Amino acid sequence: MTTTPTPTRTPLSLFVLGQGSDPRSERGVECPGDLPPASDPALVERARRAKAELGDRVFVLGHHYQRDEVIQFADVTGDSFKLAREAAARPEAEFIVFCGVHFMAESADILTSAAQKVVLPDLAAGCSMADMARLAQVEDCWDVLADAGVADVTVPVTYMNSSADIKAFCGREGGVVCTSSNAKKVLEWAFARGEKVLFLPDQHLGRNTAVLQMGIGLDECVLYDPHQVNGGLTVEQLRAAKMILWKGHCSVHGRFSPQAVTEVRERVPGVKVIVHPECQHEVVLMADEVGSTEYIIKAVEAAPPGTRWAVGTELNLVQRLAKAHPEQEVAFLEQHVCYCSTMNRIDLPHLVWALENLVAGHVVNQVTVDADTEHHAKLALQRMLDLPGETTKD
Ligand code: SF4
């Protein structure tokens, strides 16, 4: 017999920027002390000086989607998983300043030692995709699967772009974490252990990997909507499905459209369309190449001069690629997509503020994961790392 629990709503307390903060939430919008004005002409010099004073005590990580003004101070750049592992490989660094978004800083805290402190220069730098799967909602979903008699044969898989407590849920329930580079390998691991996968939180990465790389039919994928009773699915649909996709998406990559691919092909003869697997299935089907940010960077780097690209990923990265490869024509795929607004929250004033506070002995905006969550999230991460070839991959 099925139950009909009331769906848990995504808590969204909105505050006008600069006018209050939610004490129950980590997403404060205030910076204690003085946030330097963006117009301060000395910001670059201040960041340089603070970083020099901290020396080896600080290690600055910069995600590919960060602004240039911040990336210039990064000791290493990369995708979220590469950055977390880079941080773990620097045990001498007392402070890890993560220029990225909140779930990335959590992963760095999970993978680094207890003595290292992870700082996110602006705590309001969240990720809309990660926010689309809250623990209470995922636990409700697991109850729905149990009532349908399929939880025992389902392996939960979460994309790296999820909060630490979702990774911990997967660790507890025999599941695993994946990245956009290894999603196929992880799904193979999961299907060797169960008949079904619950894929969190990005429906597009889940669908694209299952259908295009694993040969699973589109009709074997169902979409679980946490805002509908029983996810909007019947018991029969849950029992028949192989992939139960969480209804989440990236608010940047999800906006690239099939029309943009058609238009760019009409406008630019010979153009190669390369997109991230967080894009919609229809867009991925039309693209010439699909891959993670690291894959996109390497594909452009390896292409012969004169290659024309239309790239479907975050704009900061595409602009940097275009600058780094003037011998090729690198363009942004879509006219109606902008920067990732949360990634862009990390700006030079926040970086200067965080570094200068560290110099003064104040650890600000530290991101910590509690011991139990860390233990179970590590289990899910370790299952991924134990897959053949994963420890050597960048
Ligand atoms: S680009 Fe998408 S997945 Fe990445 S941080 Fe922004 S909203 Fe999240």
TrEMBL record:
Binding sites annotated in the UniProt record for [4Fe-4S] cluster: C127, C250, C340
InterPro entries: NadA (IPR003473), NadA_sf (IPR036094), Quinolinate_synth_A_type3 (IPR023515)
Free-text remark on how the cofactor is bound: Binds 1 [4Fe-4S] cluster per subunit.
Pfam families for the chain: NadA
EC annotation from Swiss-Prot or TrEMBL: 2.5.1.72
GO MF annotation terms: 4 iron, 4 sulfur cluster binding; metal ion binding; quinolinate synthetase A activity
GO BP: 'de novo' NAD+ biosynthetic process from L-aspartate
Binding site for iminosuccinate: H63, S80, Y159, M160, N161, S180, H276, P277, E278, T293
Biased composition (Low complexity): 1-11
Keyword Cytoplasm: yes
UniProt keywords, alphabetically: 4Fe-4S, Cytoplasm, Iron, Iron-sulfur, Metal-binding, Pyridine nucleotide biosynthesis, Transferase
GO cellular component: cytosol
Localisation: Cytoplasm
Region of interest called Disordered, as start-end residue ranges on this chain: 1-39
Catalytic activity: iminosuccinate + dihydroxyacetone phosphate = quinolinate + phosphate + 2 H2O + H(+)
NCBIfam families: nadA, PRK09375.2-2, PRK09375.2-4
Entry function: Catalyzes the condensation of iminoaspartate with dihydroxyacetone phosphate to form quinolinate.
Protein name, as recorded: Quinolinate synthase
Organism (species): Microlunatus flavus
